[in-house]
Fold this sequence. Notes:
Protein name: tRNA threonylcarbamoyladenosine biosynthesis protein TsaB
Number of domains: 2
Helix content: 25-40%
GO biological process, one term: tRNA threonylcarbamoyladenosine modification
Mean pLDDT: 94
CATH architecture of the largest domain: 2-Layer Sandwich
Structural class: alpha/beta
CATH superfamily of the largest domain: ATPase, nucleotide binding domain
Keywords: Cytoplasm, Transferase, tRNA processing
GO cellular component, one term: cytosol
Subcellular location: Cytoplasm
Low-confidence stretches: 220-227
Number of strands: 10
Number of helices: 6
Amino acid sequence: MKLLAIDTATEACSAALYIDGEVLSRFEIAPRQHARLILPMIDSLLSEAGIVVADLDALAFGRGPGGFTGVRIATGVIQGVGFATELPVVPVSTLAALAQGAWREFGYKQIATAIDARMGEVYWGRYTLADNELMQLQGEELVIPPEQVEGEGSGWVGIGSGWTTYSDVMQSQLVNELEEQKGERFPNAHDIALLAVNDFHNGVAVNAAEALPIYLRDKVAKKKGEQ
């Protein structure tokens, strides 16, 4: 299995190449530099592996949520490659990638992901580790005010920029559930590749025209008075 994954949804820009269980990757924190960096990252990975795009079996990208421009860059690049090659595309949640990275790097199994969504809100999702060592969503991914985040049980670890911007508010909401937090973490194409390979084998892939971004702005939690 050979799969190329990219992500530009946050301040980080990354690309990864999955080849038969091994992952090569490039990652850089570079706000507003994604359009300049992502294609050279892809070329560098392909060159290091000694393959060309035609040798790939599939593509994957961070489909959001995240910054509007960044998500569009990844979508546009992967659609362009997909149209040119007719390769199948696997869209992967950037929140899921955050959670997967927390397991891969630190061994955390219950992740409360939060990306700063601006306008006083966060992109929010809770993930737990499944038996296949991949993160699974619990409930829904939402865009909500930090005052509305909720946990379920104890042992959660907060991951993502929302935990930096709204640390005090979110800690107070999860005072009995939160074990630790790491705000300065970003989605990584390495983890998008791992999740995408599993999805691909489970038939979760689309053609380039259907590889669309997810912004979550139309998927908000009810206000307390409406619940």
